[in-house]
Amino acid sequence: MEPSQFFNSNAGTYYDTDAGMGTMNELSARHIEQGVCGRVLSIGGMWPRHSPEAVSSLDLVVADVSDEMLRPHREAGISTVLDDARALSFPDESFDHVVLPLVLHHITEQSWRAARREVQKVLGEVRRVLKAGGQIWISEFSVSRPVYWVEAAAAPVTRLVLGFAGIPLVVMHSAEFYRGVLLRQRFTDLSSYYPAPSDASWRDPIRPIIGLPWLKVPRGLYPVRPVVLSAVAAW
Fold this sequence. Notes:
Blueprint: H1 3-16, H2 22-35, E1 39-43, H3 52-56, E2 59-64, H4 67-75, E3 79-82, E4 95-101, H5 112-129, E5 130-142, H6 145-164, H7 175-184, E6 187-193, E7 205-206, E8 217-218, E9 225-233
């Protein structure tokens, strides 16, 4: 199933659950909102648990491949565009900030190797539509380098198993991979923010797969770490 079809069918589930990461998502959202200003593009929907007060001060556009994912934002009066992050329809240097909220791990073309190429495509497009000196914000779930290579080896089996449930392959990349792509795309001043709620416990239940809301694992057994990466488009 294509991601657009999957999210058209599962948009309600996506917006109704925080997957057990609610507090971390809120911390990530607050961090992004403290930095964004001017004309802002959010690709793949809004950053999780965004503040309506913070959003109201922005010239904001939300782009997504799924019309159902765009619906809540459109109904809230936010400008929306049905668009593909790999070939954005916006002119060069259109935005002051671009936010990628928990979207890059979904752009995979059903292959771990292809997922790496697709991320480079997306970040190249982001660089194109950003004004010189503009800023990118990537909110993602990162994995350690050893987990990343295990994930690569297991990707064909993972794709097969998820396919039985009609769920597209997802690939959680390492923070190091994202940093490398950002540098190759002429971004500078890279910074990383790792949200760490004081009340988080390894026992907290996590729902790791949107299409399987009944599946829960303890946070300590789910080898991902939320991160917000930001960088500046070089002059």
